[in-house]
Amino acid sequence: MGLEYLCKTMAVAAGLVLTAMAFMSIISIAGRTFFSQPILGDYELVQMFSAIAVSLSLPYTHWVKGHVIVDFFTTSASPRLIAWLDAFANLIMAAIAGLVTWRMWLGLFELRESMDASMLLEMPVWWTYVPMVAAFALLCASALYAIGNDFGKMRS
User: Alpha helices of the chain — where are they, by DSSP H?
Assistant: First the structure.
């Protein structure tokens, strides 16, 4: 499987998570308003699903160069200099994404070992880290791939 396919798949998964979260919120608000019965733990679920959705969307955002870029200082720069700066930015992104992946991986096992759970639903918290670790690992791979593309631009 290609990196682009994996990035797109995670972005679609992020959209599905956000859609499910929206429907859950609507049902909870309607239940609270009309029946005084909200969904138990809806705030907990929104917290968890928001973190998952944001992290799942990061690899594709990076793949399509969707991050905010301030090019005020580089508008008159040569394409080669811009490629060098992009490669440097991608190196920083890869390093940070790799660091976050590693720390979340360790946190996942620490939370699993301590059996940390959400307050109302008593759901294990560690399971929310699984898709986030995968997403940040893919973000790191995407940034490393982009460095290769940037070096190709420097040569031409």
Answer: 3-35, 42-63, 79-114, 129-155
Q: Which two tokens stand for residue 8?
A: 């797109």
Q: At 18, list the tokens.
A: 């956000």
> Where do the domains of the chain lie?
3-155
How long is the chain?
A: 156
**pLDDT by residue, tens only, the chain of 156 residues:** 699 999 999 999 999 999 999 999 999 999 999 999 988 988 999 999 999 999 999 999 999 998 888 777 888 888 888 889 899 999 999 999 999 999 999 999 999 999 989 888 899 999 999 999 999 999 999 999 999 888 887 777
Query: How far apart (Å, rounded) are the C-alpha atoms in residues 60 and 105?
Result: 21
Is 124 in a helix, a strand, or coil?
Answer: strand
Query: What is the pTM (predicted TM-score) of this model?
Result: 0.89
